[in-house]
Amino acid sequence: MREGIYKVETKVGGTSLAGVAVLIAGKVYGGGNQVHFTGNYKLDGDSLTLRARLDTHDPTCNDPNINFLRDANADVSGSAAGSQFELTGSLNRIIGMSSRITVVLTELPDFSV
Q1: Both ends of the chain: CA-CA distance in Å?
Q2: pTM for the whole structure
Q3: Domains of the chain, with CATH numbers?
Q4: Which single residue of 1, 7, 14, 31 has CA 20 to 30 Å from 23?
Q5: Contact predicate 39/52, CB 8 Å
Q6: What one-character-per-residue DSSP string does 24-39 give?
Q7: Are 63 and 47 contacting, i.e. CB atoms less than 8 angstroms apart?
Q8: Is residue 41 within 8 Å of 28, Cβ to Cβ?
Q9: DSSP string covering 2-17, please?
Q10: pLDDT tens-place string over residues 29-48
Q11: Quick check: helix, strand or coil at residue 67?
């Protein structure tokens, strides 16, 4: 795994989301059209452990599938499969709700400017 930008595909409950993540120096930053996140990651060989705090862009959002991701912590881990990481774990809300989450990170090309 290299530091850089990754495509993120996430499934939690009945909701699928996509976006991008930037992994650099043990930190992860990213989001998509509904949700953004920040956190930390640790790489040990081909194994990746990632913890991130999620929130929604729109505090007035009425979609229960998206609101479930508001103020949530994701703890996932997994291993590399080529240029991808396949991660599973849990998504925990401050109010005590939790759900299984799957995340696929796919490395995107690095374009020098």
Answers
A1: 22
A2: 0.86
A3: 4-107 (2.40.128.380)
A4: 14
A5: yes
A6: ETTEEEEEESSEEEEE
A7: no
A8: yes
A9: -SEEEEEEEEETTEEE
A10: 999 988 999 999 999 988 99
A11: helix
